[in-house]
Amino acid sequence: MLTAALxxxxxxxxxxxGGNRTAPTGLNGEPADPGFDRVGFNGSxxxxxxxxxxxLTARHLPAKTFTLDGxxxxxxxxxxxxxxxxxxxxxxxxxAPEMPVLPMISQTPRPGENVIMVGAGRDCEDHVTYWYVDxxxxxxxxxxxxxxxxxxxxxxxxxxxxxxxxxxxxVSNVMPHPKLGALIITDFTENPATRTxxxxxxVSYDNGGALFTETNGEWKLAGIMITVSKLFPEQPGVNxxxxxxxxxxxxxxxxxTISINLAPYSHRILQVMANSKPAPQFAExxxxxxxxxx
Length: 294
What we know:
- It is a single chain.
- The chain is mainly β.
- About 5% of the residues lie in helices and about 45% in strands.
- It contains one helix and 22 strands.
- β6 and β7 form a beta hairpin.
């Protein structure tokens, strides 16, 4: 079921399309805020600020700059650790906000557990789109239709431009992978029996974003989103430029998001953080204003 690691965009959300751009409040059916303010822009993709200057992201993304709450910080030029056995990268900033270390899980989530996903990817459209898919055509054709009753597929498209947003899902599976490491899988579904209130799916540039689970009433960082899978043939919003990367600009029901399960690695992450190398001019470097990401 796995594809190669692809850039994945800001979360699409079928429960509140185009919304969820501020931290969840714990009111009116929303979950409590698990750490929305810890997710920022790692270049054009996503990253999670762990505290004490450290950013956790996907291994295939660079250690360069990190933008959090409108301020861009530089990598310290020294501390950059790529985990050899999983798709994780941990790097330290030259100067960063003072925040306590973000709690991480030590036990693997079980299928059926609730998760909150936070990413800094593409901007989600404000409605669900429905299609009639003709699988007999060559190539397969997707035709937009106005109602679910006329459709055999549905999902949410996204636009260019990046924004931080959140959504919810359930753990559908946990599994090992020989190259990517321990994985958490979440399905994007419209099945009333399993869909969540703010059902979400990663798209381009959500890679490096956060997956949170709740343990004894406390939300903890459980995963780092790295890619998506189960894309459909000729899926709308998915484009491949000649010689360039694939852009995933849609989440269609049936797609899945793949995240790294942090339980096997959280102890090692904390060890790396505790044994950082001193960076020249650490205290002297200042943040610079955020660049326009749109």
